[in-house]
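ugh ok fine here u go
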Amino acid sequence: MLSERAHIILVPIDSNDQSFVALGQSYNLARLTKSKILLLSIDDGHAKNIKEHLEELAKEAKSKTEQPVEIMIRKGDVYEEINKIADELRPMFIIIGIKRLEDERRVKNALQMIRKSKHPIISIGGKTHKDGCKKILMPLDLTVLSREKLPRTVEIAKLFNSAIDIVTVIGKEISKIEEHKLHMYANQCMKFIKENHLHTSCKFITITDKQDIAQTVIEYGEKIDADLIVIVSDSDLSIKEYFTGTAAQRLISNSDIPVLTLRPIERRDTSQAVF
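structure:
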């Protein structure tokens, strides 16, 4: 839960202009949570004047948030260092820019870093950002990991005073029994959200074999003007996609809407099936 985390927003900065969009997205979050912004740069030996550049960004961030801003420079592999530092600090959020037009290897490494992280990561793929978060989109399925998302999403929604819109994508692999369970669970989720004095709605979308689950969620998010999509690791969207992990990766890679990826809660007995 957020209350168990340090009041730090970790923002990796590199030459990628998408990281500056991510930095802008951190301002309102830092103000709301009264958190320090930590600007992190990994020195690969090619960039020049790293310290001076970070100091300029830190000065601007401090003036816009009125919160403490610090800089940190490390050497090593970019994505390994981000997770190492996050493990040391336990930040409230990591906010990272995802540039889809980069080389495939860099994008793959970024997605792997997000998947391995033990900390909440907001990935920013769009070119613009909003100061607030009026609507959160929460994809829902029947997995235990998806169920973990609800109380954590409610906690974040309370922070922003956001509405929570639930979406469930139903493909041919979903049986009638599973579909019925989804309707029951969605109703339970809506009840819980309303008990926490937040607005909510629910949408069931049936797709064909040719339609992409992740893209369906993205398009629905754009339709309702969602400000954030919340997923847990790579477990969301469908039972079939869970085993490949591709749905969540495509959602993170292709969404202009910021995506918050939460880490599954650790369990002592990992041998049990999650379905």
